[in-house]
Specification:
Elements: E1 4-7, H1 11-23, E2 27-33, H2 40-44, E3 47-52, H3 63-73, E4 77-79, H4 89-97, E5 101-102, H5 107-114, H6 116-125, E6 133-134, H7 141-151, E7 155-159, E8 168-171, H8 174-192, E9 197-201, E10 207-216, E11 221-233, E12 236-242, H9 249-265, E13 269-278, E14 284-290, H10 297-304, H11 308-316, E15 333-340, E16 342-343, E17 349-350, E18 353-354, E19 357-359, E20 367-371, E21 378-379, E22 386-394, H12 397-410, E23 412-414, H13 420-428, H14 430-433, H15 441-445, H16 460-478, E24 495-500, E25 503-511, E26 519-525, E27 528-534, E28 542-547, E29 550-559, E30 562-567, E31 570-577, H17 579-587, E32 599-601, E33 606-611, E34 618-619, E35 624-630, E36 633-638, E37 643-648, E38 655-656, E39 661-665
Helix pairs in contact: 4-5, 7-8, 12-13
Enzyme class: ligase
Keywords: ATP-binding, Biotin, Ligase, Lipid degradation, Lipid metabolism, Magnesium, Manganese, Metal-binding, Nucleotide-binding
Cofactor: biotin
Amino acid sequence: MFSKILIANRGEIACRVIRTARRLGIKTVAVYSDADKNALHVEMADEAVHIGAAPSAQSYLLIDRIVDACKKTGAQAVHPGYGFLSEKREFQEALAAAGVAFIGPDAHAIQAMGDKIESKKLAKAAGVSTVPGYLGVIADDNEAVTIARDIGYPVMIKASAGGGGKGMRVAWNDEEAREGFRSAQNEARSSFADDRVFVEKYIQQPRHIEIQVLADGQGTALYLGERECSIQRRHQKVIEEAPSPFLDAATRKAMGEQAVALARAVDYKSAGTVEFIVDAERNFYFLEMNTRLQVEHPVTELITGLDLVELMIRVAAGEKLTLKQDDIKLHGWAIESRVYAEDPFRNFLPSTGRLTHYRPPSEDPHVRVDTGVYEGGEISMFYDPMIAKLCSWGSTRDAAIARMREALDQYYIRGVSHNIPFLASLMANQRFVEGRLTTNFIAEEYPDGFHASDLPPEDPAILIAVAAVIHRCLNDRDIQITGKLPANKVRVRDDWVVVLDGTQHPVHVHPVDGSPQRIGYTVDFEGKHRVVWSDWNLGEPLFRGTVNGEHVCVQVDRVGVGYRLSHSGSQALVKVLTPNAARLDALMPVKAPPDMSKFLLSPMPGLLVSVAVSEGQEVKAGEVLAVVEAMKMENILRAAQDGTVSKVHATPGSSLAVDQKILEFA
């Protein structure tokens, strides 16, 4: 076994590997860029080595810097995590040349599976079911059209070296095939320096289901069940679960055996994932093989009881697997939600900044949080905006969904925007609950983007009751202040008016006897009687308790004279007033928000790369106005309607805040 390993990665996956290494008694070395000097993975590791500037191309992607860090620290092996250098054949070869073990497959398997065209040829030769298509080099768009006609529309045009949705186009006719070929080729050339594309049959209403494999290179190769990864947005996974609600035992066995056959065909060693596309009749077709640990590996760990990182380390150290296929049993159900720093109400634009408050749910046998951030830390513009992977486990799928909904309610994040409201909406979506999933799920369920109306309908009685109790608790504390005159006795009133999003609800709040550790109140309104119990401490951001016996967790923020309450992904502004104050409040004029329709505002914090128009220029709807760069991605801002530019408020090179003015129209 190794005594010291280096993790060639950052963020939550680096922290994840460190936790297993600690349990095994292995020392760890972190590498970090300028932007990650104070990162959690650096703090957790036994040693840390600085490897370069903030951009990954100047740090985490530099093979020589990481090899040098191994030599300096005496690290005997490297775990690459996922992303960055995890599937770079050159990295594995450079480590081997330096006498450092790579905790992953060898260069041959990485290269064979890294090319989508060659991997499909290998899969077909190994007896793995593949999508009908043409895997040769396509000369031009005319040949692409001919091939598409032979296969039969619709077809998928893909870049051979592609990934993450880049270099992919669906074509339903000759014109779209011609245009899709050119676009996919151009995108592949710019993103991967490899413009080869191929054409295959587009499977309609598909599911994305992957098989986890594990092999030791000494004769043992296993499959560890499947993961359902169909909930995707722009080809990026959002929710993963294990097992799949769609597969039966026979299909699972057939997919697993084919995945193992492919692993054996390339003499695979370590953990890997074989991805399949599955149609409505449970016909499955090979998609690709990822020769690394997957982001979503925790759901497999939760239902098998295995630690995949530990097994990867042991295999890399030369140990033989002691498991047999019959030893692999699936217990219960697990779901993973990817928590990102992004604004779902602004078309999921990434959000950067400091985590002013960060409290993940408590971990237990039913909840797991893999994170690489902490309160006071920063979400950088240089890397993926993932905050954490939130996982839940239950004996059934319904139980796992219920646990996930509770955990999302308890996830308290402030300082940056986050996608928890969207995740909460997905968990409450009836189609998701029923397991009727395809890779088109999000596009079909949220065709116009995500809006507040997409959040699960919430019983306002819960928020009214909780707001009344919170306010009553604060008033009960206020009358206990010391130094009062003996005759000046104050009694807290029982009658209040809860103003929830502008609607008034008269309530009667009265304490009930309970233990010293719990608070209990009856809240009467609208002819109904509700009993609220909680162990909430004043000032805590999470109100946990029960309303008429039902467990609730409500996030509480003080806003002026009122509160902002968050529950099931939705937010509500609440004031609790005396009846007289409520009468006066109803007479207060409502200040209308300023009309900003005449301005082009920056939708995100970022760098203004260019302004394509000038003052006095007439523009047409759809015309490019400016380009803003954020998270190393260029975002093109277009005119929503015809108009004339009256003023330019920002110049190229400027750093922009969210909603900062860029242009003004007459």
